[in-house]
Structures are given as C-alpha cells and as structure tokens.
Design brief:
The chain has 1006 residues and is of the alpha/beta class. 40% of the residues lie in helices and 15% in strands. The protein is built from 35 helices and 36 strands. The protein has an 8-stranded mixed β-sheet, with helices on both faces. A 6-stranded parallel β-sheet has the order 9-16-13-10-12-11, with helices on both faces. The longest helix is centred in the middle third of the chain and has 27 residues.
Length: 1006
C-alpha cells in the first residue's frame, strides 16, 4: 500500500480554533468542493452557512437519510459515511479526523483520510493528537497547528441548581439527560436537550431554543463535542463514564477536553467543571485539559476496501483482511459486518446470494444503519426482507414499505414513543435515498421526509413542554434585553406579561404563578409589579366609589370586594367595633391606601349596625340611666343574651319605668334569660358568633359556624356535641342543657307553660293540664311539641333548668288527682292567688309580665299519660305469666330545685334516692319490699345539683345565685309535701307591680 501526503494539509488544534470556519473559507475559494462532517447535525449547520455565502442552488446536502442536490451544484456537504469514494472536486475537507481511532466508525474516517483527495487542495481538520500518525501514514503532509482563541479554565464542582447561566450539562444516557433537564426546569425555568438519538431537525430546534436565549441551559450527551458552535460559557460534567458500544468506561482526557472545549466562543473564555454527582477532577487531569496535552493517537481503525464479491465466504474473508501498513489496526466488526454474519447463516440467503452481483447487493443492503438500536438478529431480519425484494423484484415491495411508513405516521404519544417512531421512519428515509431500491424513490423521499419532519416537530414540542417553562424563559429573555415589558390584566385578575401568564391579582394582592421560584423570581415579580402600579390606583378608585352591595363580610372574618379578599377583621377594645386590617401589597400607597381603608371601615360599621341594629341601638342609648344603663351595657357585652340568674339582683332592683325603657330597645325579660328576640335569627347569630370569635381567638375553635345552619333550619333543639366550644351555643341562640341545647325563645315559651301549673291552687277548677298539687307538675304534650323533644329529652332539659323530679306510680297519681278533683267539686273554689302564695320560684313570678306562648296541645290527664307510657316489665314479658303484673313507668312530678336537694346530693356520694314517694311519707313500699330506684329515664326521687352540661348555668325561673349553689355536707332530710302547716297569706303590697297587674286583669274581666 503506497500512501502519500502530497497536496494534503492537516489543520490541527484544540476546540475553538476556527478550523471549520477556515475550511469553509477555503472551499468557497475553489470552483468545487466536498466537505465531510461527523454529524448530520453539523452537516446541516455547515450547509446553511455555505448557502448564505454562495446561494442554495450551488450547495448540495448529502447524508444517509437526506439528499438535497440542486442541478449542477458546485459544493457538497456530506456526512463522512456519505462522502464519495472518488471525486473530481477541486477541494476536499474531512472534519474531526481524530475519529479515525473510534472503534465503531473509525474505519470509515481512515478510508477517507487515506484515499479521498481534491484536485487542488485537501484539508484534514482535527485534534493535535493526530499529528504523529498522520505524518507517519502520509509522508509529505503539511501540518498547521492553530492555538485556541480563548482560555479554558477549571471551575470545580457545583450543584446543578447553582450552575451559572449559559451552561451545558453533559451526561451519557437519555434517562440521565431527561432527569437533569426536569430538575433545571423546576429550579431555573427550563433547558434544551441534545442527544444523538434525536432526529437532526429536533436537535436543530433544541439548539435554536438555547442559542436564541429562550433557555439558559443545555443538557446534552457528548454529541455537542463534535464541532457544534454554541454560545456556552460553562460545561459541567454530570457523568464521566459512557457506554462505547462494547463496554462502560471512563472518558479519557482527550474526550473530556473535546466536550469541555465547547465552553467559550471566539475570544471569550470558558470554564468547565463537574456537578455534585461526579468526583472533582484531579490536578493532573485539569492541567492536561487546560493546556491541551493528551496522548497521541497511535493507530487508526482500518477495514479493507478491496472486497471480494465472488461468494459470501470470499466477502467475509476479504473483510477480515489485515492491514499491510504499520499504524493501522483491523477494525472490530461494525453493524454492517455483524448483519452479514447473521445473514450468512440464513438458508434462504445462502440459496439466493450465489452470484457476485447478488453478493454485492447483499453487502449494499447490510449498510442499512440500525437507527432503532435493536438487536443484531432483529436488524438482520429487516435486511433479509429488503434483500429478498431487491433480488426477486428488483425493488423493495412498496406495499410492505407503505405499511411500515403508515405505522410510524402518528404524532401522538410521549417523548420515548415519538423517538422510536422517528428512528423507524429514518430507516425508511434511508431506503428511499438508496439508488435503485425503489420504483418511485422521489415519492417516498418526499413522504418519509414529511413524516420525519412532522414527528421531529412533535418531539420538539413535547421536549419543550416537558423541560421548558415558556413563560419564564421568554420573560428572562426580555429582561436580559432590558426591554419594556408589556402587561395586561384580564377581567378575572389573570396577569399576563408579554402574553404569558405570570400570576393572579386578587383584590390588591398579586400572587406569582406556580413555577416562578428560583433566582429569576424577583425579576419577574418586579416586572409584574411595575405593570400593576396603574391597576392598583384604578382599583382603589373603583372600591372607594363602590356601593355596599359590592362588599361582603364572610364568616372567616374577611371583607371581600366583588369576591376578592381586601381586608380582614381583628379584635379591638370594643366587641362591636373590630379593627380592619387591609390586605394589600406595598404598591397600594399613600392616599389610595387610606381611601380604601376608610371605605372598608365604613362598610364594616354599617354592616354591623344594620344586622345587629337592636344591639347597636342599645349600645348608643342615651335615655337609659342608672341600673338600666348598666344592664344595657351587660347585654351588649354578652352580645344580646344574659342568663337571668346572673343579673337577678339588678333585675329585681329595676323599677317599672326602667324596665319599660329597656324594653323599648327590643329587650325581653324572660323567666330564664334577658335577651333580644330579633337577634335569634341566622344572619345576626352568624355575625355575633364572628365578633365573639374575633375577640376570643375562636375562629379555629371546634364548633365555630356549625350551629348557624341548625338555627337557619328552624330547629328548636339540637343534640349537643361535647367537643364544641360551649359559648357557641349561646351565641347562636341556644341554651346548653347537658345532652341537649334548646333555643332561648323556646325555653321562655316553656316557662310560660310551666308558670300556671305552679301557680294553680289545689281545690280550684279548672285544673290546668299538667298541674298536680300546686307545687309540682308533669310534662305535657304541649311542652314536648314546642321543644321537639322526646320524654327522655324532656327529663334532660328540665333537669338542666334546675327542676327536680319525684317519681310516683300511675295509680298513686290517679288517686291523688281524683282526691283533688273531689275537693274541688265540694269547695267550688275559683281563686286566683298571687304568685307569692304558690310556692313558685321568684323568677317565674317576676316573669309574669312576659307574654304567654300559645300551645294548642290536647288536654290529657296525668294518670292516663302515665299508664300509656308505662313500659312492660322485662321479667314479666320473658316469663309469659299473665298473672305477673307489668311494671309500669312511674309518673315524674317536677318541682323547682331547693337547697335541700343540693345538700342531699353532697351528703351521700353514690346513694340513689328512691322514687315513688307518697304524699307525707319519706319512702314508699309495696308488698313489704323496698321499691327499686328508678334509672335516669324513669326519674329519681331526688337529683343532685342542677345540671347544664358540665356546669349549671341556670336554675328554674332564674333563681338567685345564693339559692342552691352551695353543697352542704350534712345528712339529707326527707322532703315532705303533706302535713306541714299551710303558708300564711302575706298582705299584697299595693305598690307592687304584681298588684298593678292583678288590678289590670280585673278591669279587663269587667
């Protein structure tokens, strides 16, 4: 083998020496030329630059999958594999000649280096490591070494999220590239990705995304080291190991330098380093990369071009020939040779490949690239199908090809799916560009090119959508240009800057959209706030002129304007005058802020004074004096509801005129409460609850807002929830009574029903329903009806109000009532005693001026009801003995609780007093047996202290605190209702309000 370097010039040096630019300038100086490049992507870049210089009609682009060949084109840009083996062109250039040492593609570069020459000039471009081997193999070659135009410096290790702008992060697997790009998108706005597996069109679009400044980061494989001209300031290695087609290995210093050298452009210095995933480079490696000192390339990969097509066996033998020149090494089997090895074992191939023409056609078919990266056997099967068509029909079966192309022609799916389809269509693009393989190659070249372009565009879109935040990237580009940003605000508050959604304006607060975090967030926010300055002023003017209907106060304490929160309420010294805190950004300033705050304060004050008008009126009352003014103050402080027992002394001290003055403001003096009925509605109750919660940090307390819906539904009583804050019941208009809470106005109606039963005097007719002996009563259906309660609920409610029950049998109750009715018939008395002679609680008699509620309940006798409610004894029911009498439920006789009741409660812990006490007896017996103590549902002879949940809040009729509040430890004495001397009638005070009321009733009767 005789080789010569005469007329050949080797331009060698590190990256960023302008070698490719020099080759383009030299080529256009000739009348014709061919340049070979290592990548289709790089070939496209050089083709574009040549077109700009000499016009598109003078430049051809020839790659394995693409062919643009204008008639009489003078210059050809090719991939090295697509370069002609012989040429008449005046100029020939081969770029990145150091790839001749590559195990996979090196033999192709070696062949072009040794044999392809231009008539006038031949240039070999590459790394300086090629100088010794080129001088040895090509004696007479001219070597020109070019220095790097800028410095390359080591910057150490940095986290990926802390890398400077205009950085390229290098990894060696698609999964790693995608993972890094996703991380950068979340942290820094986005990244472009460049992989060898992407189609050239997709790679071009991704590189353009980076070059145009839409993103500041590029995540790539070592494909960027092959001469791509990029504006990269820093290269960071996220991996330093790669799979070279045969094994995983560390990159050598020359390979690292080839990639790191992409940093810096022209005279601008560049830096390189590693990320936190790679160990920092040692000093020796850093020095070699910075000074471009690498091991020389000692051998080039070689494969014989003198192939013998006489038979399959002869072809294989010629491919295995050894080089005759020192410095060349026989290349390992490439993809085409591996395919030939597999096909040489197929019987159908052996039977067909029997002539030199058919063997040569088989070798031509084996050159089909494995774009799909499938197994050698699968790739060989595809070649076998194509070869069979070429031998039998002369061309590839177009129906078969149409079906394969149709399967790839779908733009749906994600990145991996689209990448697989692009690899598949690239196979058929290559087939369509092979001369003589198709009957209508032009049709299929256009169709496959169209499909590949469409798939490439779809893949670029998916990559951009996944790895680029377009909003942030465009804004950052505009900010770098120091351009005036154009902003607009939609009717629903969406803020757009340069047409991209950047956040939401709610009221006077701007919130950046998700994904705006990172180092550029302040810049985006600043740009948006500049655009919002005028909008804040305009909104302030609109709010200042808005009507009350545009504002609303919600249960969470927020004031909303047209649905957007603009202020929140917080506690102040006066419960009815909460403080207003404006919810606005700093951009709302000076007079505009003051006007907005003043308008919201006017609305809040107007809303409270309107919804709580009775409470507001009494808080401002100027006609109240003395005790009346003090009571009014307490009503306001308690937000409209007072327990009468808490103010019993003050109420007792009020004269009629003072009471009348308070009543004029809607206050009602009830038996159990002093309250304002107008506030027992959902809207006032909700606002009252909010005001209390603001004053007492109650917005987060359990039960807040839960009772208002029950009040709105018209519930007169509800089952209590022990987890709720108990005060919420009172604020919503309910009285907490143990396991049940009853609406306050309903309890006053209950008091109106109980009052005449305790005022009734035995022996007078008619006896009111439920009256028993003038001191006790039984629950009636009227009471159950207004409370919406069961008999068991009624027990709980009455006990919570401070009443105590004595249990008697239905027979005893019936006998006693019969006696009372008989006495009444004999006496014929019809007396109307004053309240003081009935034994009723003081508060019940004081509430006689309250209007009585209408009941409309049917009259039923106590004995009849007791018999109807009496449950059948479980023992009797089980035995089935008809002679065993059924145990009947006792009749509960309710009476106001006394101090003795409380003494009995504290005197004997755990002792159950008996029910069924008869009149004048301490204990009742039946048949010589002690009667069993009744349970809670049946009543007890005596109950302890008054209950109201966990602590009593009231007693029957609002008794004074000093009655029944103390628990004496003495032994309880039995109560007697018969046999004690009758109470002496007290003379009626003519100045008493009750005397005046009695006189008024007498006048009305007349």
């Amino acid at each position: 083998m005789i080789l010569s370097g005469r007329g050949v010039t080797a331009v060698l040096g590190p990256t960023n020496t302008g070698k490719t630019h020099y080759a383009i300038e030299r080529m256009v100086a000739h009348d014709s030329g061919v340049i070979g490049l290592p990548l289709r992507l790089l070939a496209r870049e050089v083709y574009t630059r040549l077109v700009e210089k000499v016009g598109h009609h003078n430049v051809a682009l020839i790659t394995g999958e693409e062919k643009i060949a204008p008639h009489r084109a003078r210059y050809s840009v090719c991939t090295v594999e697509a370069m002609p083996r012989e040429t008449t062109a005046s100029f020939v250039a081969i770029d990145e000649v150091q790839l001749a040492g590559d195990l996979e593609r090196g033999h192709i570069f070696t062949d072009r280096i040794l044999h392809l020459r231009g008539r006038g000039e031949t240039l070999l471009l590459g790394a300086a490591t090629m100088r010794p081997i080129l001088e040895y193999l090509l004696p007479g070659i001219t070597v020109v070494e070019r220095p790097r135009m800028s410095q390359l410096l080591y910057a150490g290790s940095k986290k990926i999220t802390r890398l400077p702008n205009r950085s390229a992060i290098v990894a060696f697997s698609a999964d790693e590239v995608y993972a890094i790009a996703e991380l950068i998108r979340r942290q820094r706005g986005g990244a472009a990705v460049v992989l060898g597996a992407l189609s050239p069109r997709t790679r071009n679009a991704q590189v353009a995304l980076y070059q145009e400044g839409d993103v500041d980061y590029l995540v790539a494989t070592d494909a960027i080291g092959m001469g791509l001209n990029l504006d990269v300031d820093h290269v960071a290695f996220a991996q330093d190991r790669k799979f070279d087609g045969y094994q995983y290995r560390n990159l050598n210093p020359a390979e690292l330098a080839q990639v790191a050298g992409r940093a810096g452009r022209h005279v601008r210095d560049g830096t390189f380093g590693v990320t936190g995933r790679v160990d920092p480079f040692d000093e020796e490696l850093v020095h070699r990369i910075e000074s471009h000192e690498f091991d020389r390339v000692r051998v080039l990969q070689w494969r014989s071009k003198a192939l013998d097509f006489s038979s399959l066996k002869a072809l294989k033998k010629s491919l295995e020939a050894a080089p005759a020149v020192t410095g060349l090494a026989r290349a390992l089997p490439a993809v085409d040779q591996q395919a030939l090895e597999h096909l040489g074992r197929y019987p159908e191939i052996i039977d067909v490949a029997t002539t030199p023409e058919r063997v040569e056609k088989l070798w031509e078919a084996c050159a089909l690239p494995d774009y799909r990266r499938i197994t050698p056997a699968q790739h060989a099967d595809l070649i076998s199908t194509i070869y069979a068509d070429l031998v039998r029909q002369g061309t590839v079966n177009e129906d078969f090809m149409a079906e394969q192309v149709r399967r790839a022609d779908h733009t749906d799916g994600e990145i991996d799916t689209l990448s697989a389809r692009i690899a598949q269509i690239r196979t058929w693009t290559y087939v369509s560009n092979r001369p003589g393989w198709l009957a209508d190659p032009t049709h299929w070249q256009e169709k496959t090119r169209e499909i590949e372009d469409r798939l490439s565009d779809a893949l670029h879109e998916r990559l951009t959508k996944r790895f680029v935040d377009r909003r942030t990237s465009v804004l950052m580009k505009r900010l770098r240009e120091n351009a005036m940003l154009e902003a607009e605000i939609s009717v629903n508050g969406d803020v757009f800057v340069e047409g991209h959604h950047v956040g939401q304006l709610a009221g006077f607060r701007f919130t950046l959209a998700a994904g705006s975090e990172g180092t550029d967030a302040k810049a985006v926010q600043g740009a948006a706030h500049k655009a919002l300055a005028l909008e804040f002023e305009a909104r302030a003017a609109r709010l200042h002129a808005a009507g009350n209907g545009d504002l609303a106060l919600s249960s969470d304490g927020l004031v909303r304007w047209l649905g957007d929160p603009v202020a929140r309420l917080t506690a102040s010294d006066h419960v009815m005058r909460p403080r207003v805190i404006l919810l606005a950004d700093e951009q709302l300033q000076a007079n505009a802020r003051e006007h907005v705050l003043a308008r919201i304060e006017r609305f809040v004050n107007h809303h409270i004074s309107t919804v709580l008008k009775p409470l507001d009126d009494i808080s401002r009352a100027e006609d109240l004096e003395g005790l009346a003014k003090g009571l009014a103050f307490q009503i306001v402080e308690s937000l409209g509801v007072l327990f009468r027992r808490d103010v019993a002394e003050e109420v007792k001290s009020l004269d009629q005129e003072s009471r009348a003055s308070i009543r004029r403001y809607g206050v009602r003096f009830g038996a159990y409460h002093i309250f304002i009925p107008a506030l027992l509605k959902p809207a006032p109750a909700e606002l009252i609850t909010l005001l209390w919660a603001l004053k007492n940090d109650g917005l987060d307390k359990p039960g807040y807002g839960e009772l208002i819906p029950m009040l709105a539904a018209g519930r007169t009583s509800v089952v209590t929830d022990p987890s709720f804050e108990r005060t919420f019941y009172r604020l919503a208009g309910f009285r907490f009574l143990g396991k049940r809470a009853v609406r306050i106005d309903i309890l006053e109606r209950l008091a109106d029903l109980i009052r005449p039963l305790l005022q009734w005097k035995p022996g007078t007719q008619p006896r009111p329903e439920g009256a028993y002996d003038g001191r006790r009563f039984v629950a009636t259906t009227s009471m159950l009806s207004i409370l919406g309660a069961t008999p068991d609920d009624m027990e709980e409610i009455l006990k919570g109000l401070g009443y105590r029950a004595d249990a008697v049998t239905a027979e005893e109750a019936a006998a006693f009532l019969a006696t009372q009715n008989g006495e009444a018939a004999e006496s014929g008395a019809d007396a109307g005693p004053e309240a003081e002679s009935t034994g009723a609680p003081a508060a019940v008699t004081e509430a006689a001026d309250a209007p009585a509620a209408e009941t409309g309940a049917a009259e039923t006798g106590a004995a009849d009801r007791a018999a109807a409610e009496a449950p059948v004894s479980s023992d009797a029911a089980a035995s089935g003995d008809p002679e065993v009498p059924a145990e009947t439920r006792p009749v509960l006789l309710w009476r106001p609780g006394t101090r003795q009741d409380n003494q009995r409660q504290g005197g004997r812990h755990g002792e159950q007093r008996r029910g069924g006490q008869r009149h004048g007896q301490a204990e009742g017996r039946e048949g010589g047996r002690r009667q069993p103590a009744h349970g809670k549902s049946q009543g007890k002879a005596w109950e302890g202290k008054a209950q109201e949940g966990k602590g009593s809040e009231g007693r029957p009729g609002g008794q004074r605190k000093d009655r029944g509040d103390r628990h004496d430890r003495g032994k309880p004495s039995p109560a007697k209702f018969e046999g004690r001397p009758p109470r002496k009638e007290k003379p009626i005070d003519p100045d008493s309000p009750f005397a005046k009321l009695a006189a008024l009733k007498e006048q009305m009767k007349k």
